[in-house]
Batch of 3 targets.
Target 1
Amino acid sequence: MRVALLGGTGFVGTRLVERWLLGGGHDLHLVVRGPGSLARVARFQLPSWAACDIFDAQALAQSIRGCDAMVHAVVGDPDQIVIAARAALQACRLAGVKRLVYLSSASVHGQNPAPGTDDFTALRDDQPIEYNNAKVLAERALAGSTDVEVVILRPGIVYGPRSQWFTDLPRALRSGRAFLVDGGNGWCNHIYVDNLIQAIELGLVHPQATDKPFYVSDSTCLTWREFYRPVVEALGFGLDDMQNVAPAARPSRSVVGRHSARVKNSGAARMVLPLFSRRLKDAVKAGLQRYSAPEALNGFAIPRAGAPMPDWEISELHTCKTRLPMDRAVSLLGYAPEVDADEALARSARWLSGLWD
């Protein structure tokens, strides 16, 4: 199968390129936004690649013509997430690509889903975190396609060597700023990157993969304490070296955010917005974000001074009370994660400790 890969220079995409080119896989056609994006995968002899505006359905269709399927692993801001999903579906239609495997996120249910949440739980697009809302809107844009087979996968915390969950950890530990919210006793709904790629490969070929979205994860589910323990210990520290901090307060969506989302997704806006340049839209968006941004530190960043200050997203993750079920992926697709969490974390720890020795 000839497979177009969008987002091939991100964390998941780079690992998929490695696996398919080094270990064998489908015939890979990498689509990037510009040649400069290829720096991360330039060490491989790429069999086929193209550069185009992935938000332009016509240009994207030209770049993927002749492919049998597309894997969509693009990352971006909330606006880009929705636009890229719509463009990908339209491009597949125009190019005659039969199947689109879209990487959504378990965050469509929020970072701390209600008990009983599963693949069929109704989604909301009025969550405080715009990323979650964007993934919901992207899924809705892909739903109901009859001419392109759409597969939607919802991974949770995707980790492994080079992942954002570990790269800043050594510096945080050495500076005394590593932390767990409320002891990190909440569930970490995690999936090792190679297991996610296994689910992607099933999504490309399995006849039942188009049967509603699928949550996919590792075979076991750890708490955040358990998740971080092997990596922290491999660096010569212990969980006692991670500060225990209180959760952040729940934010409310700003008036600007609520109204702009409603306007952007109206029928009139979809016709008018393409007439404006991306530079103008980015400038307006930046102004709105600056106007409405709360004065809070991002939980993914390491504060320069004072005690660690988690944002609400990290707080919700660390205190998550729900272990999401992947029964449908197992029963319908035959998904059986090839790497268990202990081995996956050991691999991550070896990589990270090797960098910081």
Target 2
Amino acid sequence: MSERHETRLKRLRMRSMRRGMKEMDLLLMAFADARLAGLSGSELDAYERLLEESDQDLYAWISGAAPVPAAHAPLIARIAETAPGRR
């Protein structure tokens, strides 16, 4: 049986919030609150794959300290746009 859309959004929101690295909790929760509900099914698939990456890699990509893999570039750009304190 497939997961309901609302259940998937709640699960992904929880995974965004409980990362282990506080900085990533804040960055991913800001993105989840602002944009998660508006993502298409394929974008949610891509976000779920992104959440499999380590916090250290994600933080380096979002902060610009390391090059972003092409597969994650569109989502990383959108997450960086929603970063707290970003104008």
Target 3
Amino acid sequence: MKILVCIKQVPDMESRFKPDASGVWYAETDLAFRVNEYDEYAIEQAVLLKEQLGGEPEVTVLSIGADRVVEAIKKGLSMGGDRGVHVQDAAAHLKDSWQVASIIAAYAAGEGFDLILTGLQSQDRGSAQVGVTVAELLDYACATTVVGFEYADGTVTVKRELEGGVKGTVRLKTPAVVTCQLGLNQPRYPTLPNIMKAKKKEVRVIPVAELLHQEQRVAQVEFRAPARKGSAMVLEGELTDQVDRLIGILKDKTAVLR
């Protein structure tokens, strides 16, 4: 059995963002990066399945991006992945979901993966389109927003998170694509021995031009701070005094109260 886990390296949400010189993307100077949170659930599920099946499945961890994404791949390997694939693309952040999915599908098509795991969405784009598009391009069965996972005899049984707290059960014959949601599992922390082992595992580097055989399309992403508009008033003191002042302001300066 062969499993592919697709991960993305995203800016740490605790970082301070600022537009680059062109204003269309964030400046990476002093910006911290991490593995996309949803993708960590995908890595963990792949490793859990590998353990369930006695270590027989081979888990490949793939990421698209500049040289820095090797750090994210190494984390996936230290969590239990067997080998890594780095699709080298310094302009990955400018590609849309269709292009990213096309790259992944072009690689996967020749490898014969039984199961492809992705995160539900990336924390920086949040489109939730890559996993389902990969499934469409490969003609694989697909289940999204998965919070429960079981595998037996070539069949994947998943629980999907639906609206209003309702969950649906879906059974898929492999090959299949599954996108992983918060609550599916608890991602493990890599141990020091496994971190050291990950340094020796294979990371294959593939130039993006070998996989993306279509005219380059660039998604123009605006990243600009909102313009300052007016000022704010902070009300302090006892609560009753604040209420009285607020009512007075609403009467004098707005049409809310008359």
